[in-house]
Amino acid sequence: MSRYRRMSFNKFVRNVFAHILLFVLSVIWLFPVFWIVLTSFRGEKGSFVPYFWPKSFTINNYVQLFTDTQQFYYAKWFMNTLIVAVFSCLLSTLYVLGISYALSRMRFKMRKPFMNVALILGMFPGFMSMIAVYYILKGLNMTQSLLALILVYSAGAGLNFYIAKGFFDTIPKAIDEAAVIDGASRWKVFTKITIPLSRPIIIYTVLTSFLAPWTDYIFVSVIMGDNYDKYTIALGLYKMLEKEFITTWYNRFAAGAVIVSIPISILFIIMQRYYAEGASGAIKG
């Protein structure tokens, strides 16, 4: 009995320490978020103040973010980002699902070498190719355009097929074979059987494909140059922190950061269950 009590006490102590650690980590993670929200409502201007809690609160930072367009065009940049993210997401999802299904279900020559090469190429960060990509776009006269951003973000999406392929591998091939025996084509098997069974990985792919262009700064800064009208949110917010603008625009920058985080937060809250299922299904595969 004493041994059982000792084990229960040790388990209780471990749980207490685990919860304390999780609480500390959550505070560390949430503190910057809480601070940027407070700053977005702060009435005092300036990038630095010697106190944490604002002395006055206002919503003018949000209002002026959209109405003061003499220097920055936040509303236009928001729409540019949304357009690029939506179209990049659609193209990337189509690429990833198509390549993943082909590699999961079909057997053809050079399949294994292709997967190995794709795995190696996927280990290199995308920004290593940004100079080459820029000169290719410049040769095609496509720089400083939203179409260029959409092509850049979606072109390499096919290399990210491993997670989706792992999920497709968990779907029994006997289902496909039964449908083929009944006269279904590969396209019908894919669209009528595999896709309805793959909602978790589709949502996972959509979320990851949407998030990349929504938050990217590096490729936008290289491709867009000084074309203010075609900026996206990430580059526009960075420009607000330049020395000549930071005093006036810092609070508005915080407001812009809060606004840009809302759509992606809503998406993750609504679809987090499917996101987790997609990732876990791929790991099992």
Automatic annotation (TrEMBL):
Pfam families: BPD_transp_1 (PF00528). It is found in: Cell membrane. The keyword Transmembrane helix applies. It is a multi-pass membrane protein. GO terms for biological process: maltodextrin transmembrane transport. Its main location: membrane. Keywords: Cell membrane, Membrane, Sugar transport, Transmembrane, Transmembrane helix, Transport. Signal peptide: none annotated. The chain crosses the membrane at residues 12-38, 77-102, 114-137, 143-163, 201-224, 249-270. It comes from the Bacteria. One of its GO terms (cellular component) is plasma membrane. GO terms for molecular function: ABC-type maltose transporter activity. The keyword Transmembrane applies. Residues 78-271 form the ABC transmembrane type-1 domain. InterPro entries: BP-dep_ABC_trans_perm, MetI-like, MetI-like_sf. Belongs to the binding-protein-dependent transport system permease family. MalFG subfamily. This is Putative membrane protein. It comes from Herbinix hemicellulosilytica.
